[in-house]
Sequence to fold (689 residues):
Amino acid sequence: MADARSDIFARIREALKVKAPKPHFKAEGTTGQPVKVGKPWLPDGGETTDASLAILAEQLAKLKAVLVRVPDEAAAARAVAELAATKRWQKVAYHGDPLVRTVAQALPCAAWEADASFEKQQLEGCDAGLTSCESIVAQLGSILVSSASSGGRALSILPHVHVVVARVDQVVPDLAAALEQVRGRHGDRMPSMLSFITGPSRTGDIERILVLGAHGPKELYLLLVG
Amino acid sequence: MSDAKSTFLKDAAVNAADGDQRAFIRKALGGYYLNRDLQKARFRDWERARDAASLAKWTAVNDLANQLERFTTNFERNGGVVHWARDAAEARAIILKIAADANAKAIVKSKCMTSEEIHLNDALEKAGYGVVESDLGEFIQQLRGEAPYHFVFPCMHVKREAISELFTKHLGTAPTDSPEELTMIARRHLRQLYVDADIGITGANFLVAETGQISITENEGNARLTAALPRIHIALSGIEKVVNNLDDLAVLLPMLATAGAGQPMTCYNTLYSGPRKKGECDGPEEFHLVLLDNARTQLLADPEQRDALHCIRCGACLNVCPIFKNIGGLAYGTTYQGPIGSVITPHLRGLKQWNHLSGASSLCGACTDACPVRIDLHHHLLHNRRNAAKAAPTWFDRLFHGGFDFVIRRPRLFAFGGKVFRATLPVLQKLPLPYLRAWMKTRDLPKAPAKSFRDQWKESRHG
Fold:
């Protein structure tokens, strides 16, 4: 008996001998006119930085994520320290990115760098996780984190609060641009996890009523520096 | 009549008569319609986006052999292990072997309809593993011992009081009528299970051929945790989930979210390539992907309905289907409910047993209009009806069409038949004809005219 792989491939090749008609859509461009921007039929991500930032702010507000704009690193550090004090955080884990480290050092509570291997239990006991990100997608209000830029897989999902510290120039207009950037940056050596985070964790499983903090963070903060 | 059909007819009749439950489902979907339309309005051209999404899936599915090869080469280069399963039994055996080799005890799962399709939980539990569904809806359905009601909203039919009772019974928590508090009970309960599990099992929404990544879409973060904390990550996916390029996701991810749940983007859309890499601080040591055929290649072999494999399982067709809203998801008795389920189940599990689902439609076409990848759903229901009539006509079909065919070719017999029919119609009204009974309950047969059309025609020409 042939192995399952060759059997399945044989079945597929046999099945595809009969062609299916190609759908005759005009997805490639409007009635023959060249397309200037990629995918101009998707939601708008803004053509200028200001437009993108405005869309981002609106999207994040709808998603119930908190956007904090700060002029510089010192202001970012003060904002996070204030948050930690108000929320009475006891323990915070952070990713050792230079910007995040600067911010973490100003925290009024215990903070440890989670880039070396750690005990899952220890991370579970943290009040908040501080990470950087790959990019921020204005079009959808998504924050792209990765195992490379955000301290692995668990830091951005296990603690009850997720704080992302990023620079304004990390904002890209749309999903296509974010994917293109990731491909350019990592090429054949992608981080083992890339995750588009769009608002705090949520569920509507009980009577389709929205509840935040299903399994992941209940609160999501984005600090934009610059 | 097949067992599946008689159960379906019985359940459908009971559910359709339950006005409370139907009102509850309508109410639950109310917010969805509103949000879906708000998000659709943000698309600069929803119809063109549908074209693009459809084309992306068409291109991949019609080049499936090459794209799967490309995908698996890249996936393996990233350090993952690919397993192939021709059918459900092979897929279960592969997963059981991985679990046995790993000496695993506890398994945590995130939502995966393909695992429902192969009845994975039963197999794992029989083999002695503790298996916990971590998606809130699936967790509730697991405690209820019931299949999912809707493949995106598994427990949308369960009222909060019932969930509270369920949690009190199984988890010993205090009763509450707050969805928020109920969600937090599940959150607290499941947290430790992620930490303790040896194996995490997830599904996959897309397999990206270009990069060898799998893409998982979810709202709760349970799939993220399932793929982050346990030592071994197993993903289970149908072979049709391939897309050619990473860029295709720029269209498919927002459309999946908007069509399926009225969101701009689902909360977590995560791409995985391989186990924990050198220099990464966490993540599983092993990453296995089980690729399942289970009759998908049979559907692929039908060029007329091949586009049913474009399905991205958003659930939009269920949410707009008048049949689904009236008979509910459980009545279908299938892994995939609603219009898409009615189209593909006869292919996956046999037309003879499941053709009755082709009739579970008003042919209104709402499903086809809602589908973000433009699957011609309601016509496929007609195609299935035609195929079933061709393959194994029922005695009624044979008698009716054979008789019609015989009579229509013989004008004199036709005229005589008409005369007899007109004369006996008043009597027919009173006979308990099984095929007309339901129809006649609320309708009267029209009165027969005194003369046939042929007679009237003749008179008008000669008179």
